[in-house]
Each structure stands twice: as C-alpha cells, then as structure tokens.
Amino acid sequence: MMTPGTPEDLIVLAADGSIKAVFEAVLNRHHSLGIREISYRVILQPDHDPGVLQSGHKLLQAQSKNYRHGLTVCDRQGCGKEFRPREELEASIEKHLSNHWGDRAAAIVIDPELEIWVWTDSPHVAEVIGWPSGMPALQHWLRSEGFLAEGQVKPNDPKTALQKAVRLRKKRQSSSLFRILASKVSLKNCIDPAFLKLRATLTRWFPDAAPSAD
C-alpha cells in the first residue's frame, strides 16, 4: 500500500477505451513483461488519438509529482498526422512531455493501430475470436481474404481483418475483447516496434531481478 504523499509508479494516458483495456491487462502481467509489480492508473484522453498527439502532455502535466513515470499511447492511424513516421510522432510528444517530466515520461504510437498487437500466432487469438479449428484455419482465412501474404506474420490491414473475423463469428468487437486477448496472448512473441519500445521502457523504469515468465 502506498503511503500518503508517496508517488505511484505509472500513469498512462490512453487514446481510447480499447487501448485502456489492453494496458490495464498487460500491466497486470508484470512477470511476462519482465518488470516488478507496479502501481498504475490508466486514464482516457477525451479527444482520442489527435488529442494525445496535440495536447496529451497538458493532461499529464499536473500528474508529474503524483507519479514516478508517465506514458501516452495512441494510434498513428487517425491521429491527424499519418504522413509522419511513428518515431517522429513519439519524439514530438516526448519533447512536450519533457518540459514537466524530464526523462521520466515516454510516448508510444502504435503503427498503424492497436489491432496490430492482436495478430500473433498464439492459439489464444483464434480461441477468443471463436474461430473454429484454431489458428491454422484462421491464418488460412486471412490469406484467402487477401489480408495475409505468404510469409507474413501480421495482416496488412489489421483493423479491418479483426472487424471482419469477429463479425463472421457473430461476436462484438469491444474493449472487453481486447482486454481478454491482452490477458492471454503471449507477450514474448510480439515483435511490433511500438510494443518492443513499450517493453524496453518499462523494464528500464521498473527492473525486476526475477526471470520473466510468459
């Protein structure tokens, strides 16, 4: 339990409810991330991706004394500056964050959007979506629909692919679906650059001497 006046570990500013759900699930899996158990809070940016990009640092400004570290998270797709690379967008946000946080805050811009983190070869993906015959059948369907080329690991249009797969299984794409996926899918197998940056940042901030689990 935190003592009065003691800063908590992390505050995360999420662009939408799905990102919020994913981070709440992932941050609970500290062993899988290879970090110590942390105290955290995830809040929503009312203006979604453009808001995180343009004014997220202002929302977190007042929290710099209440938390040891801060994160902003948004999608590149829909942020209003899609023509700029992910790294440039992150650097721009971090420059503004540094005015009040110094080097204690970071920005994660998911390219193109959150759904790219969903598509791994984990059998849990097919299970949660409700796809019959498991992951091989789901990957075959992705290829037959043109979402996945031979040799590709992730669909070229991850959002549309997930929407169509979920709709075919008569499920609803919601924050709870993302939360379930984030609580089950292996974190070791995600090779998305934004996720790798997230993991590296968290392990730098909250190192754990114990070996990571999946």
Could you walk me through the main structural features you see in this protein, from its secondary elements to its overall organization?
It is a single chain. By secondary structure, this protein is an alpha/beta fold. It contains 10 helices and 4 strands, in the order βααβαβαβαααααα. It has a 4-stranded parallel beta sheet, with helices on both faces. The chain starts with 7 loop residues before the first strand and ends in a 9-residue tail after the last helix.
What is shown here, in short?
The chain has 214 residues and is an alpha/beta fold.
Considering the chains and any ligands shown, give keywords for the structure:
214 residues; alpha/beta; Rossmann fold; 2 domains
* Class from secondary-structure proportions: alpha/beta
**Neighbour order of strands in the largest sheet:** 2-1-3-4
On the 0-100 scale, what is the average pLDDT? Answer: 92
Question: Order of helices and strands, N to C?
Answer: EHHEHEHEHHHHHH
- Tally of helical segments: 10
**What's the overall geometry?**
globular
Q: In terms of per-residue confidence, which ranges show pLDDT below 50 for 5 or more consecutive residues?
A: none
Largest sheet: 4 strands, parallel
How many β-strand runs?
Answer: 4
CATH class descriptor of the largest domain: Alpha Beta
Rg computed from alpha carbons, rounded to a whole number of angstroms: 18 Å
* Share of β-strand residues: 5-15%
The CATH topology of the largest domain turns out to be Rossmann fold
Into how many domains do the coordinates divide?
2
Distance between the termini: 26 Å
**What CATH architecture of the largest domain would you give?**
3-Layer(aba) Sandwich
Q: What percent of the residues sit in helical stretches (DSSP H or I)?
A: 40-55%
